[in-house]
What we know:
Strand order of the largest sheet: 1-3-2
Structural class: mainly alpha
Number of domains: 2
Amino acid sequence: MKNNLNIQGKLLLASLALAESGKERFSAEDIVVMAWKKFPEAFGLAGYTDEKGYPIYPNSNRVYAEIMGSKPLRKNGFLRKVGSKMYQLTEAGKVRVQSLPHADSGTIIEKWAIAREQIDFIRRLFDSKAAAKYRSGARDDISFFDACGFWGISSSSNAKDLWSRFAEVDTVLDVARKSLRTKKAVQLKHGSNEFTSNDLRSLTDIHLFLKQKFATEIEQIKKRIHER
């Protein structure tokens, strides 16, 4: 099933392998090497092969073109830049990986039970100042600073940061709603964290409300297409 994966899918599997190895944050070079190890045909340097015809060196440019530009991997919020040439697989990325053909067995991973990290992500949204003010009816008091706290960005963030965070909120909430629907459950629970389907709907409503309320500020961020 490897051949059924596109370049973004292969890079997501490489990123997952890094995360599962204990590297929550990994460098661009880490992705280059892991992608080459898992998919040498796609990420090997042309013209340098062993006696069996396998590439013996990674093609870093092939990887950099996908993770440093405005390609779907970043724009869809699957991979987040967390430092100079440092990256992290987002919750949206982990969800996307679950729907990909497995790199080795060729089976489809269908893990709709929401993970602890995703429940923690929802908790952070629910506990944000913007969400608290929205629920109390003080919607006019919500500042752009509060909205940034809800999304996990700042007023100085760039377009890629914005795309990534918006996609992550959308994806995690969507998966949570599907998890409740498929299991006919009333609430999601992990430890002391409990969220009903109404809670999830309210978070979606807050997300949409904030995007409408601060549309002008969001448009300014979207103009910052270059990373610092």
